[in-house]
Design a protein that fits this description.
alpha+beta; four-stranded antiparallel β-sheet; 5 helices; Ribosomal_eS24_CS; structural constituent of ribosome
Length: about 180
C-alpha cells in the first residue's frame, strides 16, 4: 500500500461557540496498515479545515476489531489562547504547550491526608504543608567574636520581630 492510503472522514460535526471550537468524530480508514499516528491525523485535519495543527486536539482513538478503521474525537479551537483556556492540562502537556511538574509520592500522600481533614471547597486550598513560623538563631560570644549557628532562614530576622534570651555566654534569638 502507498503511504497516503489512510483516508480521514469526519462525522457528527458541531460548532461549539461557548468553547470557541469545532468538534467532531474522526474516522480514519487505513486498510492493511497499522494505526496512523495522531500527528498525521492532526496535519490532515488542518488541511481539511484550513487551520494549523497546533490548535487541533485528537484523542480517544479506538481501532475496530479486525483493523482497517479507527474512530476517535477531534477538537479544532479558534485560536491557541482558547485551546490553552479550555483544554485539560494533560492534553496540553501532550502537545508540549504546558509543563506539568510531578510532585513526589510522599508529598502527594501527605497532601491527600491533609485534604481528608477539611470538607468541600477548602480541599483545593490545602496546598503544601505549613512552614514553621518559629526560626531560631543561636550565637556564641567568644572574646568579642561572634560565631553564629543558624537553623532554617536567618534572613527572616530582618523582617520579623525578635525575642532574645541570654543564657550565659550563649544568646538565643527567637524570631516570631
Amino acid at each position: 500500500m502507498s503511504e497516503g492510503a489512510a483516508t480521514i472522514r469526519t462525522r457528527k460535526f458541531m460548532t461549539n461557540r461557548l468553547l470557541c471550537r469545532k468538534q467532531m468524530i474522526v474516522d480514519v480508514l487505513h486498510p492493511g496498515k497499522a494505526t496512523i499516528p495522531k500527528t498525521e491525523v492532526r496535519e490532515k485535519l488542518a488541511k481539511m479545515y484550513k487551520t494549523t495543527p497546533d490548535v487541533i486536539f485528537c484523542f480517544g482513538f479506538r481501532t475496530k476489531f479486525g483493523g482497517g478503521k479507527t474512530s476517535g474525537f477531534g477538537l479544532i479551537y479558534d485560536s491557541l489562547d482558547f485551546a490553552k483556556k479550555f483544554e485539560p492540562k494533560y492534553r496540553l502537556q501532550r502537545h508540549g504547550l504546558v509543563e506539568i511538574k510531578k510532585t513526589g509520592r510522599k508529598q502527594r500522600k501527605e497532601r491527600k491526608n491533609r485534604q481528608k481533614k477539611v470538607r468541600g471547597t477548602k480541599k483545593a486550598k490545602v496546598g503544601a504543608g505549613k512552614k514553621d513560623n518559629l526560626y531560631m538563631c543561636i550565637s556564641k560570644w567568644d572574646n568579642g567574636d561572634n560565631i553564629v549557628y543558624r537553623s532554617k532562614a536567618v534572613m527572616a530576622m530582618l523582617d520579623s520581630k525578635l525575642e532574645m534570651v541570654d543564657a550565659g555566654s550563649w544568646t538565643v534569638v527567637f524570631i516570631m
